[in-house]
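Please, structure for the following, as tokens.
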Amino acid sequence: MSTTDQPTTPTSLPLAGDGEARERADAARNRLRILEAAERLFAEHGPESVSMDDVARAAAVGKGTLFRRFGDRAGLARAVLSTHEAAFQEAIIRGAPPLGPGAPALERLVAFGRGMLGLVDAHRDLLLAAETGAPCGRFRAGPYASYRFFVSSLLREALPDL
């Protein structure tokens, strides 16, 4: 990505879940049931111990629906994880200081680091499961572009002479 392709404002950055096409009401209900079932099963048993059959059964959907929607267990883990990332991104953009706007840049950087570490710590098994399909692929995706932009903007603000 060239510098001219870089987003210039937090509101122009891709967020977790961006780019999803408008879905039918029944498809939205199925997606929600699947994500809730997967989150519950992953929390109870660990992502490595949960099969797509387990999730389909718990969500009361067919396996075909699950595979068409998420591809594989890594895709399902990424989708579950994206809900947590979206909440973190919302806190960065519109949340209370020090993570959200209104705090000095260095305080926001520290809060971002703590928040990111907290996200990783709370969801490490899910992060590992999400990486099985495309190692490091998540780090090239939209939400991580927003994190890089956020950190680089705060660094420029905090340390303008560097």
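Residues 73-94 form the longest helix (22 residues). The radius of gyration is 18 Å.
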